[in-house]
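Catalogue entry: protein
Contents: sequence, fold tokens
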Amino acid sequence: MQNDCKCNCNKISADDKRFVELKEYIDSLNGAQGVTMSVLQEAQRIFGYLPLEVQKFISDEINVPIAEIYGVSTFYSQFNLTPKGKHKIGICLGTACYVKGAQAVIDEVAKQLDIAVGDTTPDGIFTLEATRCLGCCGLAPVMMIDDDVYAKLDDVSGIPEILNKYRG
């Protein structure tokens, strides 16, 4: 299986020791039924995302068809099929933020990082995502980087300085 991601992430091979950790977790479940979600959550914790190689491994280990594993992995937004950056940037596109200029914020961040929404920078530092309401409507437009909130970003000229805080 070829990994087509743009980042310089580590490719996952069958001899990756993380598979041993995942197998130990699965074995600890003692063949219990209905473990798909918990196994996928643990796999994502271990690997950081759920590439097809990991999904196939889970399918074989818990005896659930790969189509079902893939279906669950793609249905729930908590699961990632591609590697995410060290820092997650979420820009609110809720009504208040959108009306107050969130699109300009997205455009500037995308320009500064040279990526599109949903992508990860080639160095693996940032992932850019558009989000729904962050509950900070009075502070619109709002951007979150990890757990840090940046509010009232009417003037996008400060965005490069914000991003530089996370590059080191």
Residues 105 and 111 are 10 Å apart (CA to CA). The beta strands are 87-92, 126-131, 143-145, 148-150.
